[in-house]
């Protein structure tokens, strides 16, 4: 059993040793290595590397143990292997807590960035995503750019499909870090027979009701702008 005082002393020494280097930029070789091992984008690799150095509670490998292990861990440096241990711990925690994502609303939508085929990342095609997400039809897809300004493909998923994707990657024991972006659109449900929900107009009062069956309210469901964003009507039509 680890002595708590020894652990506190270890953390204090690590904090002192890392304080000067936590803001240092990783080398090009380190960035490329983290991209290869963990399937991070360049921006993610730099960010995760800095987070790792700043985390004084991260797993630590004693010098003697690392000296005996590094010959068997080709392609890894010490910090990369420590980061892998941390990811293993986080992955096991997610696997033991399958209800963690249940807080997501069933109506929520997300954009999922497909993996890069030239980096041998999983889920690099729409058909793979459809299979992993257990979707009955091909998801809607979009093209754009990622945080490194590289061309990327995104597909639209609901919360259930997102959960299936995460479970699929856990079962594969993949190092691939999925990118989900909340896809938020304001819902609009305007009535053809009432000005509700226009702000500043109490539609229960007679003067704010339609006078005949031939009257209608603008804008209609398929028109813009949406009137209820205005507190009162403009003073002139030109406004």
How would you sum up this structure, described in words?
There is one protein chain. It is elongated and about 85 Å long. A 4-stranded antiparallel sheet has the order 2-3-1-4. Strand 2 and strand 3 form a beta hairpin. The N and C termini lie far apart (74 Å). By secondary structure, it is of the alpha+beta class. About 6% of the residues have low confidence. The chain has 7 helices and 4 strands.
At a glance:
By secondary structure, this protein is of the alpha+beta class. Helices cover 36% and strands 9% of the residues. A four-stranded antiparallel β-sheet has the order 2-3-1-4.
Keywords:
239 residues, alpha+beta, 4-stranded antiparallel β-sheet
Topology:
Blueprint: H1 4-18, H2 28-38, H3 42-54, H4 63-69, H5 78-96, E1 109-113, H6 126-132, E2 141-145, E3 151-158, H7 159-172, E4 180-182
Antiparallel strand pairs: 1-3, 1-4, 2-3
Helix pairs in contact: 2-3
């Amino acid at each position: 059993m680890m002595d708590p005082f020894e652990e506190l002393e270890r953390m204090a020494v690590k904090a002192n040793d890392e304080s000067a280097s936590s803001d240092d930029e990783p080398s090009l070789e380190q960035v490329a290595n983290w991209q290869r091992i963990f399937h991070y984008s360049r921006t993610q690799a730099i960010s995760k590397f800095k987070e790792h150095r700043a985390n004084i509670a991260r797993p630590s490998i004693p010098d003697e143990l690392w000296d005996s292990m590094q010959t068997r861990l080709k392609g890894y440096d010490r910090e990369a292997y420590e980061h892998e241990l941390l990811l293993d711990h986080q992955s096991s925690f997610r696997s033991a807590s399958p209800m963690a994502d249940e807080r997501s609303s069933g109506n929520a939508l997300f954009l999922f960035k497909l993996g890069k085929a030239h980096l041998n990342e999983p889920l690099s095609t729409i058909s793979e995503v459809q299979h992993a997400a257990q979707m009955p039809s091909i998801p809607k897809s979009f093209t754009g750019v990622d945080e490194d300004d590289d061309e990327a493909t995104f597909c639209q998923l609901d919360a259930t499909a997102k959960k299936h994707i995460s479970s699929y990657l856990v079962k594969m024991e993949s190092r691939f870090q999925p990118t989900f972006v909340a896809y938020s659109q304001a819902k609009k449900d305007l009535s053809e027979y009432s000005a509700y929900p226009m702000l500043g107009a109490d539609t229960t009062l007679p003067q704010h009701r339609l006078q005949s069956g031939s009257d209608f309210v603008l804008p209609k469901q398929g028109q813009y702008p949406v009137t209820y964003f205005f507190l009162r009507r403009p003073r002139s039509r030109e406004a």
